[in-house]
Amino acid sequence: MKSLSETAFSMLDLVPIRDQGTVSEALNNAVDVARHVERLGFTRYWLAEHHNMDGIASSATSVLIGHIAGKTAHIRVGSGGVMLPNHPPLVIAEQFGTLASLYPGRIDLGLGRAPGADHATMRALRRDRLMGDGEDFPEQVAELEMLLGPRRPQQTLLAVPGEGTRVPIWLLGSSLFSARLAAEKGLPYAFASHFAPRYLHDALRIYRQNFRPSAILDEPYAMIGVPLIAAPTDEEADYLATTAFQRVLALIRGESLKQKPPVERMTGLWLPHEQEAVGNFFGLAVIGGPEKVRSRLEILVEQTGANEIMFTSDIYDHALRLRSLEIVAGLR
Predict the structure, then answer these.
(1) What average pLDDT does the chain have?
(2) Is the confidence at residue 88, as pLDDT, over 50?
(3) How far is CA 294 from the centre of its chain?
(4) What burial letters (b/e) apply to 279-291, b meaning 16+ CB within 10 Å?
(5) Which helix (H) or strand (E) covers residue 226, if one does?
(6) What's a Gene Ontology MF term here (predicted)?
(7) pLDDT in tens, 34-77
(8) Rounded to an integer, what distance in angstroms lies between the CA atom of residue 197 and that of residue 200?
(9) For residues 3 and 309, is the Cβ–Cβ distance under 8 A?
């Protein structure tokens, strides 16, 4: 049975923009976070593709990956994920092939099949394509694998840079579709339990039961997303977590997603059904002082057998966000 000390820790950053902050501040903070978790021994630092969201500064994901990789020394940097239906596979192969050529052995390519945006944004991103639900995602992944692999005889479509770089591909998902595809292709799999924990156990079961060894992996490798708010005391962690609660509440209501400072209590800020929806979103969250965080993580590792935990940490004060990550790193 896997223990917490055997589980890799990583970071997923949405590059949050504060209500009184700027995009430049958010981007500078992202560099600071990446350097911080590198010093703490985290395995990787990933960035997520989101569009048309005023509180998230990671929309130009590949550009920011290059910036972060250039400001760090050895931590793996990648996408968690690139929403492949938004892009031609050739473009992604060229972008990540360039990144892999600049930073050999340090770039990950996590792929999702959801658009990560509303319908209007989807139309803006995919002007020459019919709007769909990612039905051609397996074909897109196969094309991307071909473009990043060695040149084949009579191959006419080339990614330069990209060809032969074999950038590691991860499949990401919040449902069961990508679990099956990752198992079939023998790829590492990351489940988005940091915002959609409902199908976590089903997805991991399907992935492991159907896994086919490949040239990439001999056995399954699973990562789970976990929201983290760690502080010296449970009471302070509960207080700091209200920033994250307010942001998800704003998402539900279609309001601004800029970070808001924590509040003493959420009573009066949400309706009962909204409180329930936010609670479902954070069903796997780890919020508390060191001992509570350790206990919660040990249970998660025991129940899921995850090889790796990827933390999100939505805390308003940048210094306290760094402290939260330092606390969890000290628990192994």
Answers:
(1) 94
(2) yes
(3) 22
(4) eebbebbbbbbbe
(5) strand 222-230
(6) oxidoreductase activity, acting on paired donors, with incorporation or reduction of molecular oxygen
(7) 999 999 999 999 999 999 999 999 999 999 999 999 999 999 99
(8) 5
(9) no
